[in-house]
Amino acid sequence: MILFLKKGNGRFFTWVIVSALILSICPLSAFSAEYNCMDPFDLVIYSGKSDGVVAKAYTSNYDNNIYVSLSDLSAALNETGKQFSFRYAETASEGEHFLVQPGESYVKPERPSAEEPREQVWLEFRRNRLFFNGSDKKYYTYRDGTNDLYLSLTDMQLMLDVTAEFVGTNCIYIHTDVPFDPDLHALEASGYFNYINGIVLGDADTGKILFFRDPNKITSIASTSKLMTYLLLAEAADAGKISFSDSVVISENAEKLSKSADGIIKMTAGTEVPAMELLNAMLLASSNEAALALAEYAYGTEDAFVDAMNRRAEELGLNSAEFFNPHGLPVYAYNTVQTKLQNRMNASDLFTLASYVIGKYPSITEITSKQYVMMPTLEYSTANSNPLVFNMPDVTGLKTGSTNKAGYCLAASMPVTVGSETHNMILILLGSETGAERGQQAEILLRYARKYYTENGF
Fold this sequence. Notes:
The protein is 27% helix and 31% strand. By secondary structure, the chain is of the alpha+beta class. The strands form seven sheets. The protein has a six-stranded antiparallel beta barrel with strand order 2-3-4-11-10-7.
């Protein structure tokens, strides 16, 4: 079945402007949020019926960056193989959330009265809590005052597994019977990967590389640095120098970092915290203070740990690697002309590191595959910072990262099984411009790897 959308130039739908920013609708995690200025237009969606469905849509900040109403998309896809219901809900356990249920028919939502038409509106942009077929998803969406959500055309194709195609001015066909499977080389030719610092996608078990872009460009790697931190900690545990069943005494340095602008979890010097809680905090919440506390626990001082990081990188042949701390935050050199330094590496070497870590210590994925974790001693609960463990159930990790210089980074792992054989795919993605783009790009690349090996074998 073929479905097409046409941007109309007629009347504008109007919306209630969101007046207050809700910091978190998920009781177990807090996600960043912002308001974006949106240009509204009508989107006419056809599904083989005699009449099209007029949908509400917006362009976000830039022309052709289109977000479409999930409520209206549900109406348009009704009675197709991709029909779904969409509704807002609120419960004591989940707080405010939204439900997309595939296979259910469209139910017209109740909406408040429309305001007068306006040329532009401001809508809230965040990871609104969204369940698809009962599974938690972490796509960035816009939410309006009528409790409707707007999903980008890319994420719409990923979530519903359909293929959309522009076929003329303001006209898009959605092939509801064609799974989303974009051609990576066509995307590359179109400029889709132009502003990424480095990509390497391959098989961690054989070393075969499926796709790469600028693999040798040395760039900041932000919190993906914590993979090397984990490796040194695991090796120290193997050597009997530390134990993950121990408690770690929080230092004054770790407390200071926790209370800085880059702190994630507030910590108090002298407090004893189980090492496993700190590992969860480091790998899932990307806690910088947890990484520092563990580094000091294992090697006595941060400087000694950083020296060990650089030595280990040299031993592994990671010739592009340079570490300044165990967490990936910027540091300033001690001189009168303030020089900012950041951990750095190229995508090829980070692929080698991630492959080595998951090969030597596959148990890391017992942590990095978790969606949510509670840390009772720290009195902290969080969602995994990696959206792929929500959006692609077979993804098992590994680590996200971001700084202004590094952009949005990711080292992802995903096992693929062909027959009786399973191999781990590793994706290194360095320098996406936004968290939303990082999630989309990573999901597209990993889908490609899964399909490639499913069709061709190892």
